[in-house]
Every structure is written in C-alpha cells, then in structure tokens.
Write a structure and sequence with these properties.
single chain; 686 residues; six-stranded mixed beta sheet; six-stranded parallel beta sheet; 24 helices; 23 strands; disordered N terminus
Amino acid sequence: MAPLKSKMKLKGRLKKYMQTSLYLGLLLAVVNLVVYLINIPSGLVVTCFVLLYFAVVLSLQFYNKPVIINELVSFATQYGQIQKVLLRELEIPYAMLDDGGKIVWTNEAFEKVVHKDRGYRKSITSLFPSVTRERLPGEQERSELDIVYENSNYVAKMRKISLEDMLVSSDIVDGENFSGYLIAFYLFDETALRIALQEVDDQSLAVGLIYLDNYDEALDSVEEVRRSLLVALIDRKVNKYVSALDGICKKLEKDKYMVILRKKATVLLRESRFDLLDEVKTVNIGNEMAVTISIGMGLDGLTYAQNFEFARNAIELALGRGGDQAVMKTPQEITYFGGKSQQVEKSTRVKARVKAQALREIITGKEKVLIMGHRMADVDSFGAAVGIYRISTTLERKAYIVLNDISTSLRPMVESFKNHEDYQEDMIIGSQQAIELAGSNTVLVVVDVNKPSITECPELLRLCKSIVVLDHHRQGTEVVENATLSYVEAYASSACEMVSEILQYIGESIKISPEEADCMYSGIMIDTSNFMTKTGVRTFEAAAFLRRNGADVTRVRKLFREEAIEYKTKADAVSQAEIYRDVFAVSTCSSEGIESPTVMGAQAANELLNIRGVKASFVLTEYQNQIFVSARSIDEVNVQVIMEKMGGGGHLSAAGCQLNGVSIFEGIGILKGTLDKMIAEGDLAV
C-alpha cells in the first residue's frame, strides 16, 4: 500500500494549499535579490533566512504529504464502507439490475419483502411478473409502475445508471463505445396510503335525483280516495331503500326526490343494478298503471356542486331515453341501468305547443334555415325535413334540406319534389353547399337524430350558432351541445309525428301540400311498421291530420313497392335466419345488386319478428366496407341497450349500429358475445 500511496498525487484545492508555502518561498527569494541591491550584508542575512525557510518547508512537505494521503485514503475507504453498510441496511427496498432485468445486488429490506436470500440472482420478472423487460427504462432515464405483491401495494421506481463513464478510466476494461447500464430498482410501500385514500374516497359525497316518470298518469288510474295511499307507499319504498344505504332522501316536489349517499353506497347500487327500479313497480293498490322511476347519480366531481350538476345531467339523460332507468355519471364515463319498459305516451300536447312557439321565434329571427337529418337518410328523416321546410317557407324564410346520398326507397319521394314546379331547384342541397350557406344568420334544424357524429353534415353543428334538435330516439352519451331548442321525445313513434304536431300549433296560415302530407305520412307508416309498433293515440291523431291535408294511402303504398331482386333478397335473409338461444333471430342480408341493402336488412329484421318465440331479431348487412346491424323487437327485449354496447343506439324496439374493420362473420361473433355477456350480467332476461 505504501508504494501505491507514494505514487498518488494531490490535486485541486488541497494541492494548491500544500504548494502555497513554496510560492511564498519564491517570493521571498525575489525580495532577497532586491535587498542585495540595497545592502549586501543585509542580503546575506536574508539569504540565510531563505535557505532555512526552504529547508523547513521541503522537509515538512516530504514528511507530511504521505501522512495526509494516508489519512485521505483511510477516510475514503472507511466512508465507502460506511456508505455500503448504510445502503445495505437502508429501510427502502433496493436492488441493482443489469440491462436485461437480472438482479445483481439487493439490500436487506428488499430481501425481506421478497423473502429471498442475499445471493438471489434471477430475473426481476420472476418476483414481479408485471415488471417485464418492456417496462424497464429504455430510452427514457426513469420509469415507474404500480405493483401488487402479497396483498401489498408498491410503487416501483427504476433509474438507468450508465457504465460508460466508469469504464473510460478503467485500466483493465476497454470502455470505448460501451453503452451498457445498470438499473437502480426501488420499492415504495403505499399500502397504508392507498387504504387511507380509498377510505376518504368511499366517504366522499354522491348526489342523486329520483323522478317519478308517470306520477299523474298513475294517480289517474286509481280511485281518488286511494291516491294519497299510493303516494305514501311510493314515498315509503324510496325512503326505506335510501335509508338502508345509510343515505338521506329529501322530497323536493310531489314527484321528485333528492338523495345524498356515500360513494361507497353507489358500489352496492351497481351490484344490485339499481333494483329500486323494479321495487317501485311492485307498489299496487288497484292502479292500472305501474309506477316507474328514473334515477340520476353524480359522483367523483371536484366539488359538491359539480356532483349535483352530474346528477342533473344524468336524470335528463334517463328521462330523454324513456325513463324507467338509472344513469350514473362521473367525469370519465356514463353508465346506464334498466330501461326495459316502453315509455308511456303523454296525453297532453302542451309541450308540443310550447316547442312550436319557440321554434317559430327562432326561425323568424334568422334569414336562412338549413335542415338536415342523419346520414343515409330514411323516409322519416326526409319527411320531417319536408315538414320543417314548409314551416320555414310559410314564415317567409329561405330553407334548404341537406341531403347527400339518396337511397332507393327515398328516390321516388325526392324526385316528386325536384320535378314539381312549386318547389325551387335548390330545395335539396349537398353538404358543401350547406357549409357555404352556414353562418351567424342561419338556423340549423336537426331532425330524426340527436347524435352529432351520424348527422348528414357534422361540420354544420360547429358553423351554426343557432341549432334546433327534433328527435324521437332515446338520447345517448353523445348529444348535440348548446342546442338553442331541444325537443326529444322517446315516446313519439317518429320524427314526422312530432313535426306534424308542431305544424298544428305553429300558425293558422300554414297549408300543407298533398306531396308534403304523403311524405310525412310515409315517415310515420315506415317507423311504425304500418302502424303496428310504437303507436299511440297521438300517432293516429297525427296521421289523421295528414290525411285531412291530402295524404293518400294508395299513393304512399305505390311509392314503397320493391324491385323483384330486393324482395328476393329480403326473403333469403328471413329463410337463412339462425335462432340463437331460442329467442334471438340472427341473419345476414346480401348487398349484391341492391342499391340500399341497409333498408332491406331493416325490413328483414321486422319480418323475423313474425316468427313465434322470437323476442328480438338482428340482421347484419355488409355495405361500404362496414357491417350494418339492424335490431328489432316487439316489447320483451330492449334492443337499444344491446346496440349501445356495440357502439350504436336507437329505440327500445328498433335500433342499430355500425361495425368497422370486421367481416360479417366476425360481426355475428361480436353480436353473440354481447348477448351472452349481457345475459350473464343480468342485463337481458331470456
């Protein structure tokens, strides 16, 4: 060690400090020369002092330098040992890995966590399967991930340590162009922290709103002396249910309740799938109509006010989708429960009259009116657009119907307007023309759709500041934002029915031509399958209004006669149907030689419902590199919920979706998988 130490040299500030006395000696020698010039005897005296100074300084440096170096080496060695011991006994679990994830060193805390000896040298993945090679630091210097090990939660933090700088100065290893590295692996136990955070989260506030869907109708169906008893039984049922969840229930109005719960209680609500929906229906004291409720829950907001706003949005969604269901809204997602019964038709037309007056004011306040329905427009969409066109022209506003692709079934109807002298050539325009016309002085009326992504021209929703939505489909998560007027009624049979009612209240001066009446009557007829499904009193009243204004059933029937190849295609789809799980009819519809195969698919789905025992039918059609699924039911299955699981939507009895990037056989597999999963989870009863 001694020869090694003798070869060592000091550097830096310590070296400068040790050489300071020599520099002072050189300065003293210069001073000695100056003294010689002044007085030689004095110079001799100073020379003796300088020689003595150098002798003392050099001797001290010769004897003290090894001592100092020895002390420094000893300190460094002991310091390194201390650091090694401290690192070994560090309370934080720590390990060193090579660049492939193999363990090369561990400390005592790490060995205690994983229950391994000091010499354990296997891959880190053998201890923590989630720490794969891909999760180790690569191009990035640091990485971290959550690990669950033996019922404990850890955060694993990893840092890459390059070996290149260490090997450059090595005498035995050539470190040139070496890119190897080690990985420092730390484990931080967050089990107690997560338990505490979960407890705080479980105790956070969840706000709920409960509305009785058919309060007035249910009371009207029971004799007057028993009405108070019916109300009391409903109140007791709701309050008892909420109290069992350790919540607070406050009645706001005769048919509205506000609920305060811990977030932990919402987990029980999810698990029970909001069985209060079914419990309330059991209240019966002779009322002919079962009481149904809608529930909106809001949670995980940043403030209590935001949770209440979530609950309000959720209850609006539940009501817009037809009621008899629960909607749970968080900042990340919206979850639906229930929705298995048909919404009851409202006998009053007050809402239609109010909406009609509001629509009149909006249209008269603008110069131009753009009307559009959904993509691949059907008869109901076009018929409703024609009704709004008539309202706009009567109010002396220039109106345009946005229509791109015209299906086979729609073409005869469109041609009847294009060839009619009473209608202008620019009555029907494409998306590009509509975009050029859009502006601040234009009102956009969206009919037969409330989902922005499937409208005829979604760009118009951004360009037009004034937007009106008229639709009869149940609302989903995606809705038209900031609509000036929104009239969405899920109980209505069709958009044409809604527009027909509005026409009766918009003003006395409106006159409908026979062509317009035929068009709107056709929309009602198609959406109700010739008045066989989703028809109520108001449906027939709307049809009667159109008949009085010139609608001819014979002309309408002639409009919908099919080509022979279309009829055969529909018959083939029906004949090839598979009965899945004894209650679901699943079939495919060929698109070869058919101009509008999706229409054929929808018609085939309707035909399949005529088979005894079939509760719902599904027909898949391949068209324009997509798989279109048409779903139909009578009243036992909510096909809207099924289609929403597959990315679509619609009505309780008529819905659909589009699948991208799959074959028609893969689409059938996705459909069957969705049905199986919903049955297993209790969303479907067969």
